[in-house]
Every structure is written in C-alpha cells, then in structure tokens.
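Hi R.,

Here's the chain you asked about this morning:
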Amino acid sequence: MIRTSSSIKVNGQQSKKNIIEAAREFFSEYGYLGVSMSDIATRLNITKAALYYHFAGKAEIFKNVLDEAFAELSQALNRARDEKTPEKKLENLIKAYLKFGAKEKNLTKALVLKLAPHDAKITGH
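And the predicted structure, written out as tokens:
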C-alpha cells in the first residue's frame, strides 16, 4: 500500500497528539522534573528518536501540554462567563479553577514551583 502525503500528515498529527496525551499524564502525575523522554517513549512503545522526530525535547512537549491544558481551562472559564447572574458567573469561575487545579495539580505545580528560571523559554515568559 502506498501512503499518500495526506495520510502521512494525519498519522504524524495523531502521533503528536498521542505523545502530548501520554506526556500530560506523566507530567500531571510526576511533575516536569519527574518525567524523562524515555518514560514517554516507553509508555507509547516507541523510540526516543521517534519523540525527537516530532519535538525538539521535553521542554517543547511540556509547552504543548501546557498549551492544551490552559486552552481547556480558558474554554471552561469562557463557559462560566456566559451565566446570567454575577453570582452564578463567580460560582462557575471558581468551580472551573478548582476543577482544573485538582485535575492538573502536579502540572501546575511543575509550572509554578519546579521550573528553573532558565526554563522560561517553556512558558514563553
């Protein structure tokens, strides 16, 4: 079977999605410093070279994980803003933050507490 460029592109996009999903689980469980490229590769049953084909390194994977996580938070906050009363808006905003914090506690801790100043390139600040 001959693979077309569009099927390769779709497979590449799916591979990146799978990497980000697996990495997110690891980062959420163990934090940034507790995860290695080997951990992610082993989880996906691929080589580290396959990871490096899609991402420059762990920092880039982490940035993609953060982008995805904070996009989800942003969507939840936007839904909360659609409420009619200020009380309901505030209630739903708080719930969205708490739900995000509970689900991603180690991910946010890794971002806030464990990244060294030289890792600012990850967060874009």
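The helical segments are 5-30, 37-44, 48-54, 58-81, 86-103, 105-114, 120-123.

Let me know if you need anything else.
M.
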